[in-house]
């Protein structure tokens, strides 16, 4: 399978933005003279004060600093809305498809403008101004996009918390960025089930105390009854009636923060990744256009949630900056049936479809029938993101969903990178199932070995990026030192991605997965340390170690080794209790799939847990444990193998 190449079809090249020769020339130009390249492409957005400086970046240890277009001023909402009004005011900006297939609507750029201005005025009336943080805890409804753009319009900084996170996780994120305002909905709706968003906000604020959050703005989605705290809580529709739909877009510096997004790392609690204005928008828009080969009038659908970076860059900011038609979907792939994705494609004549391998794998289980009963004739480009796509899922996506007509762009990137760094371009790149292929313009991947030696030619190693690109994160909110430490200290002078990769003889990259203690569950990032700290907070648990293991649908599952306090009995009832505990503490995405009660964990003589051994046992691959000579108590391993949970 690995040798397989799918050549660029003539139809993919026709009308495409770039072919292979153009890609190569542009790439060469972008890395040989970044100032000239980005100086030119920085003009794809409108600037209220044009920039004269382009790149000012340093990856030098102790002095990491990333600035792009620094003396320019612009506004993201202006670029995503206002500048399109003259030419495409009546064109659809957002197609919203509800959880219920009978509910959908089209929002034009002119309507989007009015809605965003209104939302901005509601925020402004509550004291929100440039630089203030606003937390969004929203379902996938148009108001989520209005709220993001309303913040951007005022120069306020949004921090979205995925609606699947628990009240405790929400509380720590609200506190982390000291948001005085929270925007939410009464309830979310997913797969016919209600999600108690407002009640979760209430629980989060109860935990925080009353001195931080001053306003909670509640969008009515289901109309379900919720408690409203007088003076603090207001229904959005009532507040919106009090304001006009005119609100100027505040010009902000290119390096003014646009948003904070919390993401899991290998240690400690989630970090607030900070993205700024100018470089981020240029990069999101440009990658959206080239990677998806977006053309005027195309209907583009990214199935992500706005709670993740993919929703930020490729549902809202990239597409709208390009004047695109972007589809926003409230529901899930399996409701009311497993044909839903393809029915939505037919209903709205979707041309470009972007989803995650985990969704493909879960639908593959249902066979071709639910796909083949739909037409999908409108599809032109398919995209994948979030985790490595295994060749079987790739083939099914290509053959069954795309009827062998559509290129698959396997896009590798991260919350930290702001936009896609490695991906095929539809008219230019011969595909290899399972490979993210080649770097985007301006991106300089570098492979290093464990000692940091730069590898040449075909190789396997750790993936770094040698120089800055405009969409890169700028800092960890409130902790620049953690930013330097996390990303620039392992291999000094380079950005370290945390991913392992292989580079083949054609210079194609094959991402093999995280090499740190981050696991990727259904394309969602989870730090093993977070799950461990949740488990050890349980009164019966003495110690816990969490690792990932291969999972047929989720990509990786969560495997927890738990040592109980003396006198406690490990049984199925306690397993269930611990799963409920973690779900409640962090959220359903952190639920352990397998829990093994272990009398002891394998440690070195200096007391360090040997995770390598735990990973092997979780993978059911204990024949290859490697060097165990440093184990303090070899008998512990025998017991772990004996009682392993992941048996075929
Ligand atoms: O391990 C890589 C994996 O997802 C990680 C980033 O996760 P997150 O910040 O949540 O962003 C996900 C959406 C951009 C990466 O370090 N990953 C993402 N895309 C791919 C991937 N692994 C392989 N192939 C991909 N296309």
From TrEMBL:
Its cofactor is Mg(2+). Acetylated. Deacetylation by the SIR2-homolog deacetylase activates the enzyme. ATP binds at residues 386-388, 410-415, 499, 514, 525. It comes from the Bacteria. PROSITE patterns: AMP_BINDING. This is Acetyl-coenzyme A synthetase. The keyword DNA-binding does not apply. The keyword rRNA processing does not apply. Its EC number is 6.2.1.1. Gene3D superfamilies: 3.30.300.30, N-terminal domain of ligase-like. InterPro entries: Ac_CoA_lig, ACAS_N, AMP-bd_C, AMP-bd_C_sf, AMP-binding_CS, AMP-dep_synth/lig_dom, ANL_N_sf.
């Amino acid at each position: 399978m690995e040798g397989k190449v799918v050549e660029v079809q003539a139809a993919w090249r026709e009308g495409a933005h770039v072919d292979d020769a153009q890609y190569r020339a542009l790439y060469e130009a972008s890395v040989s003279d970044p100032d000239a390249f980005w100086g030119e492409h920085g003009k794809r957005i409108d600037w209220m004060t044009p920039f004269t400086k382009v790149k000012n970046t340093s990856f030098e240890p102790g002095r990491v600093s990333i600035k792009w277009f620094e003396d320019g001023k612009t506004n993201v909402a202006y670029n995503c809305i206002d500048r399109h009004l003259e030419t495409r005011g009546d064109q659809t900006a957002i197609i919203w498809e509800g959880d219920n297939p009978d509910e959908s609507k089209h929002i034009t750029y002119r309507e989007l403008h009015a809605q965003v201005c209104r939302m901005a005025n509601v925020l402004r009336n509550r004291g929100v101004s440039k630089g203030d943080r606003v937390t969004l805890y929203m379902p996938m409804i148009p108001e989520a996009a209005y709220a993001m753009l309303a913040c951007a319009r005022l120069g306020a900084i949004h921090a979205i918390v995925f609606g699947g996170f628990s009240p405790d996780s929400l509380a720590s994120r609200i506190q982390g960025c000291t948001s005085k305002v929270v925007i939410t909905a009464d309830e979310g709706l997913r797969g016919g089930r209600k999600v108690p968003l407002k009640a979760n906000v209430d629980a989060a604020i109860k935990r925080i105390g009353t001195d931080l959050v001053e306003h909670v703005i509640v969008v009515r989605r289901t109309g379900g009854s919720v408690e409203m705290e007088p003076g603090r809580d207001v229904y959005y529709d009532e507040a919106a009636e009090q304001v006009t739909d005119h609100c100027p877009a505040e010009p902000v510096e290119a390096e003014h923060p646009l948003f904070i997004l919390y993401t899991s790392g290998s240690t400690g609690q989630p970090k607030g990744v900070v993205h700024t204005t100018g470089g981020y928008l240029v990069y999101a828009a440009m990658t959206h256009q080239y990677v998806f080969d977006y053309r005027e009038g195309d209907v583009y659908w990214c199935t992500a949630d706005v709670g993740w970076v993919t929703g930020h860059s490729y549902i809202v900011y990239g597409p709208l900056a390009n004047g695109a038609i972007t589809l926003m979907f409230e529901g899930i792939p399996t409701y009311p049936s497993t044909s839903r994705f393809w029915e939505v494609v037919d209903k709205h004549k979707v041309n470009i479809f972007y989803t995650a391998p985990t969704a493909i794998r879960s639908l593959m289980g249902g066979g071709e029938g639910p796909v083949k009963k739909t037409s999908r004739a409108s599809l032109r480009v398919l995209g994948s993101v979030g985790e490595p796509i295994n060749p079987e899922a790739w083939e099914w996506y290509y053959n069954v969903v795309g009827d062998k007509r559509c290129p698959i762009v396997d896009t590798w990137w991260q919350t930290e990178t702001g936009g896609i760094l490695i991906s095929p371009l539809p008219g230019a790149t011969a595909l290899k199932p399972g490979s993210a292929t080649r770097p985007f313009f301006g991106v300089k991947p570098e492979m290093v070995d464990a000692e940091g030696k730069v590898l040449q030619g075909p190789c396997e190693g750790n993936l770094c990026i040698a120089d800055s690109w405009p969409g890169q994160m700028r800092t960890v909110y409130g902790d620049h030192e953690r930013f330097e430490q996390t990303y620039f200290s392992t291999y000094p002078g380079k950005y370290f991605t945390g991913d392992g990769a292989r580079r083949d003889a054609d210079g194609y990259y094959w991402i093999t997965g995280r090499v740190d203690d981050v696991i990727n569950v259904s394309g969602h990032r989870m730090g093993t340390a977070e799950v461990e700290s949740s488990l050890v907070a349980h009164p019966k648990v003495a110690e816990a170690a969490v690792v990932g293991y291969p999972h047929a649908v989720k990509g990786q599952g969560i495997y927890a080794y738990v040592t109980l306090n003396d006198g406690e009995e490990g049984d199925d009832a306690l397993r269930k209790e611990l799963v409920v505990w973690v779900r409640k503490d962090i959220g359903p995405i952190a639920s352990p799939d397998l829990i093994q009660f272990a009398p002891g964990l394998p440690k070195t003589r200096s007391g360090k847990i040997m995770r390598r051994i735990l990973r092997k046992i979780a993978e059911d691959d204990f024949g290859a444990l490697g060097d165990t000579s440093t184990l303090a108590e070899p008998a512990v391993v025998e017991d772990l193998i004996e009682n392993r949970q992941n048996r075929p």
